[in-house]
């Protein structure tokens, strides 16, 4: 087999399997754990808001509601930024393979 061809094949193979092994898997698990933790915190905040509405303290409940809205917007922006970064990374891999 031609050495250039072998090197190109190895790069393709490495790019293909790099998303499934080692550090990237651990990173994905930690990311999921982070979002589970954030979800639990949001549920606790929603419980506090519900209790505040029950006890008729509207100001504090509104503050928590605004906090949840800000957190939701931040999450959506973060997710959009992360998807764009992932697309850029995949495009670079494809460009390297074709070039």
Walkthrough of the structure:
The chain crosses the membrane at residues 33-54, 60-78. Keywords: Membrane, Transmembrane, Transmembrane helix. The chain has 99 residues and is mainly α. It has one domain (3-98). The protein is 89% helix and 0% strand. It has three helices and no strands. Helix 2 packs antiparallel against helix 3 (58-98).
| Class computed from helices, strands and strand pairing | mainly alpha
Number of discrete domains: 1
- Proportion of residues in extended strands: under 5%
Per DSSP E runs of 2 or more residues, the count of β-strands stands at 0
Taking pLDDT < 50 over at least 5 consecutive residues as the criterion, the unreliable ranges are none
Q: Spell the H/E element sequence.
A: HHH
Helix content: over 70%
- Give the termini distance in whole angstroms: 20 Å
Mean pLDDT: 77
Total helical segments: 3
Any idea what the shape is?
Answer: elongated
* Biggest sheet statistics: none
* Rg calc: 22 Å
Keywords: Membrane, Transmembrane, Transmembrane helix
Transmembrane segments: 33-54, 60-78
Descriptive tags:
single chain, mainly alpha, 0% strand, 99 residues, membrane, transmembrane, transmembrane helix
Q: What is shown here, in short?
A:
Helices cover about 90% and strands about 0% of the residues. With about 100 residues, it is mainly alpha-helical. The longest helix is centred in the last third of the chain and has 41 residues, at about 60-99.
